[in-house]
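Bump. Still looking for NADH dehydrogenase structure tokens.
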Amino acid sequence: MVKERVRILIVGGGYVGLYTALRLQRNLKQELRRGTAEIVVLSPDPYMTYQPFLPEAAAGSISPRHVVVPLRRVLDRCEVVVGEAESIDHARRTVTFSTLATEEKGAPAQRLPYDELVLAPGSVSRALPVPGLAEHGIGFKTVEEAIGLRNHVIEQLDIASSTRDPGIRDAALTFVFVGGGYAGVEALAELEDMARYATRYFHNLKPADLRWILVEATGRILPEVGEEMGRYAVTELRRRNIDVRLETRLESCADRVAVLSDGARFRTRTVVWTAGVKPHPILAATDLPLTERGRLRCTAELNVDGAAHAWGAGDAAAVPDLTAEEPGRECAPNAQHAVRQARVLGDNIVHSLRGEPLDTYRHKYVGSVASLGLHKGVAHVYGRKLKGYPAWFMHRVYHLSRVPTVNRKARVLAEWTLAGLFKREIVSLGSLEHPRAEFELAAGGKFPQDPKGSS
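Sorry for the wait, here they are.
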């Protein structure tokens, strides 16, 4: 039993933030009812994004609303604060953060004291200083980026269909994806499926007119599924006329020309950047110990090494992998570890408050599954290798079992069922990015230009 009032602050509303808060509000039910414990979740978004479903959301197989989990609904015994952490002074146990209200008023950032800190801000895209990337690149880490990319791809088909200029047409129908990990391969495969299907509704476009290019700096893609399944994935993509270029880098995309390290040049209006992630910048604005790669230095009990009352897990934390044969190895920053670490983390905070021994995080990686588009996939799970339809089916079953809340499971399953009965939707709603454009035009203003030039 917690004897003194304690405030537990969770920074981040992703996998670790959500599952840790769920665990805490269940284990501290009596303390929360009596008011001796308080759980505060500080997140820049009021929802958690289930990222494995982003490729299907981009392809239109799942509604964007069902890819996210509203924090306030599932964390009904927690206080959810939508804001951005700017710095953390753990020595004084305070976090400085800003909200939309403080930005609106131009007021200074707010300070929030805490007793226990869970730092789980996740990661952000790792952008390299490639000329033109900041101006023309598109990320694929948020639901907004996934839906924006879907609209963008369909708009390119509209542009190509409505022009007689071969240069504009070729640029519109050339799609370059940089990064051969899960995000890049699954996004490319799902969108290629969708675009190929959409061409049947354009009188002057054929699937062969589209050019899809995957650029990967190493010699393999999808390293998580093993070398054999990675080679199969390359073969499968190339069988669909997708140009897979291994051991190749993007050197420039200035002036909408993708220049690769092998000397190839492509005029393109679409460069999707999925080449890795890096720790969230908030970690550098703390007084907590970090590794050389900028992640929190954590113990196997998931507390920050050398910092009492501070905890970490997920992408932001360097947690030792006790199941690895090589000493000093860390757990991979993926969802499989993050969800399991969150449960141990939530239990250990309660153990710490009650003066009980802490649990040790130990989980042997069971394998991975990846989708290569509708009815296609690869999997390497518990030593078994699957490909094609069985792997795709396993991919769907696994992620349906992992997406939080029964509500989301039911909605996703219903959408998959309907998608199997009816045709794909190929409507672009790019105007959602400028919802006031029509009214501004009616009021005598100028139609706003897309800063990326995608429309």
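The mean pLDDT is 91.

Edit: fixed formatting.
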